Amino acid sequence: MTEFDEPPEDSLDVEDDYDHDILLVAGSRPEVARLAPVARAFESVDRIRAVTIATGCDPMSVHEAYEALGVPVDVTVLLREPLGPNPANVAAVLMTRLDDLLVDLDPSAIMVHGGGMTAVVAAQVAFWRQIPVVHLQAGVATDDLLCPFPQEANRRVIGQLASLFLTTGGAALGSPIGPNSIPVGDTMAANPQPADLRFAGLVRRVRTRGTRLVVAGLDRPDSLGVLASLPELLEREPDIELVVFGRLAAHGAAHSLAVHDRAVVVRTVPASEMLGLITASTVLVSDDPELVADAPGLGTPAVLVDGPHVAQPGDSIRSILSPAVMDTVRQVLAVAPGPAPLPSDGLEALRVEQAVAWMFGLTPSPQLDSAQATNASDNSGSG
């Protein structure tokens, strides 16, 4: 179901087989990475309807991210006007569109992740409509209000508006959240592993052996200098593995990498595989601004080659002229410990469903009991 600029009056009607429904509102690809497993969990338990919403500054990229992870999109909120360059303009456009959506669908609750612009706007609009807000990855990520900017401040605002707070671990650092705080784990761990055996092997080595992965997406001819410097990086850093993709992967300068035993060179990486690679990488290097903008939300520092990027306080994106890129990459590698393994029992998304069911009064406990956890693990293993 897709919402266009002027949808028919009944175009957003949904079936009434459930007593409760919840909108999973995503405004970026990193948010989809956490909400897609939740959508699958709601579908598998089948006691609450989860309605997937693709919106944000680039709703079609969010729509495609949901589909890449095997989750159908119920509503894609297209924007009626171009977005301006400042956050106030973005928020104003999203606010009216999301308010219209909540009026049309009248959900039992909404769920947002993290502290992106879409999340804070959706939470604000839902609060005004007296619709409960569930905050996934609730709490404070850092002690610095400006780091990352503006996500940390947005996260704290949502913490004042939400009814249910789902955290990745125990008590959230310095958290201004309420008593309904439930640790569920990072739902991103429940996403499918890469299907390509080369990428799956890379991710496994990162998680089990401490291998560091550098992912380089290079399309523009003026990024050739970066491509040409990658063999030296492999020579200097014996624990580094490398994935190179993009138009320049077909360039002659990539030949020495294509035959290297610690490099994978491909023309394209499917969106479903990209998530796992970026999440597992120690640093992303790319001349694609949108890809670089997604990386911090997946926990990965990013270097934007020659890109137009306005630095913000606490920003984990570095915009570097091509000749200086590899110096910056080496600096990141010197200080970044690499992605920490995600301790996962595969039940993160089911814990989210259980907590929401408890909020709706459908179950006496917000926590999965041992029998439920065992049954869920058995079903996952048999699938």
Terminal residue distance = 28 Å
Q: Using the 3D structure, state the CATH architecture of the largest domain.
A: 3-Layer(aba) Sandwich
Strand order of the largest sheet: 3-2-1-4-5-6-7
Mean pLDDT: 86
CATH topology grouping of the largest domain: Rossmann fold
Number of helices: 13
The coarse silhouette is globular
Secondary structure class reads: alpha/beta
* Helix share bin: 25-40%
Question: Low-confidence runs (pLDDT<50, min 5 residues)?
Answer: 4-11, 171-175
Give a quick rundown of the structure.
With 383 residues, the chain is of the alpha/beta class. It has helices at 29-45, 59-68, 87-105, 117-128, 151-161, 197-209, 224-236, 255-258, 271-280, 289-294, 325-335, 348-359, 370-382; strands at 21-26, 49-54, 75-76, 109-113, 133-136, 164-167, 181-183, 212-217, 240-245, 263-266, 283-286, 302-305, 317-320. The protein has two domains: 21-186 and 344-382, Glycogen Phosphorylase B (Rossmann fold); 197-335, Glycogen Phosphorylase B (Rossmann fold), CATH 3.40.50.2000.
Describe this structure as you would to a colleague.
- This is UDP-N-acetylglucosamine 2-epimerase (non-hydrolyzing).
- Its EC number is 5.1.3.14.
- Keywords: Isomerase.
- It is an enzyme of class 5 (isomerase).
- Helix 4 (about 115-130) runs parallel beside helix 5 (about 150-160).
- The protein is an alpha/beta fold.
- The longest helix has 19 residues, at about 85-105.
- It has 13 helices and 13 strands.
- It has 2 domains: about 20-185 and about 345-380, Rossmann fold (3-Layer(aba) Sandwich), CATH 3.40.50.2000; about 195-335, Rossmann fold (3-Layer(aba) Sandwich).
- Strands 3-2-1-4-5-6-7 form a 7-stranded parallel β-sheet, with helices on both faces. It has a 6-stranded parallel β-sheet with strand order 10-9-8-11-12-13, sandwiched between helices.
